[in-house]
Amino acid sequence: MIFGTHLLLYSVDPEADRAFFRDVLGFAHVDACGGWLIFALPPAEIGIHPAEKNVTETHAGHDLATGTLYLLCSPLKDTLDNLAAKGVDHTEPMEAEWGVATSIQLPGGARLGLYEPRHPLAVRTTAVSF
Description:
alpha+beta, 4-stranded mixed beta sheet, two-stranded antiparallel sheet, globular
C-alpha cells in the first residue's frame, strides 16, 4: 500500500536549507539521526507535464524521475508579506492561466516555486501557517 510521498531536495548547503524549512517556513519535522531533519509536508498533488526527454537523477542505484517543486498558497500576496517579514525575498509574481507564480530563494542558493493556483485542486488543503 502506498501511504505517502518522500521528496528529495538537493542542496549545496543542506544544514542552512533545513534551518530555513524549520525556522522560516515552520514545517514540522523529526530528527532522523544526528541532525538530519525530515519534514512533514502540506498535502500534495502531482501534475504530469510534457517534456522533450525524461529528466532523471541517479539515486540509490536507480535513475529516478525528478521534478520541480512548487509550494501552493492562498492568497499569494499575504504569504509573500509573511515571508518578507522573515527576510525572504521573491521574484516578481507572474500571471498564468493556471495561477500566479513566484519563487523564493533558499539559503543554499536554489529557488523554490510558490504559487496561488487558479485550477481545480486534486488536494484538499490543510494549511501550514507561519
